């Protein structure tokens, strides 16, 4: 069975009301591209980022050059009901952001969580042995699932590398690619519409029949590199090419591949191909390394703990993965508390 459906929409992308909730590296990249393509884009932001977006717009540098893009930025109260909402935050911020976007959602709104790791809706919509069960690491006691009906969600896997150098200023050094799929694996008009809208914005958009296969492909990439990038202070190129790091990357890949296979995922990429593709992305700093360097919380819930939780259901040991996640957590907590102490001292 082909895993990528053929996009069926040939007419120009329909005009949509689109909200980007979360204006960091990925949010600003998607918002700028969509706004440049003529869509009605609203960006939900806060603090210094909101002020900058209002005064200067988004400055996106990607493979096509540098674009300065004015956007309508504000809080949820400033926007009406949306056709599409991209959630562009770290997994630990999903619940807060879902609460904020409630006024923007009606029964036709499609919510697209552009978030790495195991999604909170993983066991919803597809059936199977664990149907309806909760991934506690990302959906404690079902508290996130309760915030949004499953039928509003469109799965996505984001293959973009982006970094914000300042609020609203983002550089993305690789081609933009996003894959989309219904949680119940169905084909739908809204899936085709979403792909048409995103493709018209210069982001390659692939509709998928089995979104979980590609989720696992990305989970393998993130679990094997993001936490280790923090421990080693290493770029993707270094992680995938330096023997001392590559061995650990491969060991984690092998462990997570076993978890993916246990859940029936068909992952087409073997570890050696992962290494080649990853190295070709260049000296990219993972989003987790970016957070570490800023003293921010690390996204270990969806990228680390959720994977260990799913492995435990099949008694898969995860020896290397667990150790690296533990080390990353230790480094992250230590660094963020010393960053907070320095900030407090500086403002005293
Ligand atoms: N960067 C990358 O290259 C890639 C990232 N990803 C994934 O995409 C997701 C987003 O990552 P990325 O863009 O890098 O993350 P960032 O940290 O750069 O951006 C997240 C944004 O969400 C905002 N935010 C969080 N909570 C709220 C809230 N309650 N209200 C308003 N704004 C909020 C943050 O605001 P504030 O700054 O004020 O906290 C921040 O601007 C993550 O899951 C990441 O793993 C996937 C592929 C590549
Ligand atoms: C590094 C990358 C692009 C892929 O592993 C990523 O998803 C991240 O930075 O979180």
Automatic annotation (TrEMBL):
Annotated metabolic or biological route of this protein: Cofactor biosynthesis; (R)-pantothenate biosynthesis; (R)-pantoate from 3-methyl-2-oxobutanoate: step 2/2
Keyword terms of this UniProt record: Pantothenate biosynthesis
Keyword Phosphoprotein: no
NCBIfam families in the cross-refs: PRK06522.1-4
Phylogenetic placement of the source organism: Bacteria, Pseudomonadati, Pseudomonadota, Betaproteobacteria, Rhodocyclales
GO biological process, one term: pantothenate biosynthetic process
Protein's recorded name: 2-dehydropantoate 2-reductase
The Ketopantoate reductase N-terminal domain, residue ranges: 18-184
